[in-house]
Amino acid sequence: MPLIPLLPIFHRFNRQYFDGLLVRDSKPIVSIRWSDGRLRNTAGFYRHGKKSNGTKVCEIVLSSPILENLPSSALESTLCHEMIHAWIDLVLKVSEGHGPNFNARMKLINSSQNQFQVHIRHQFPVPLKKPKWLAICPSCGLSSPYKRLVKRIACKKCCDELYGGRWHSSCVLNFEPFSIEK
Ligand SMILES: [Zn+2]
Ligand SMILES: [Zn+2]
Question: Which domain holds residue 81?
Answer without folding.
Answer: 7-112
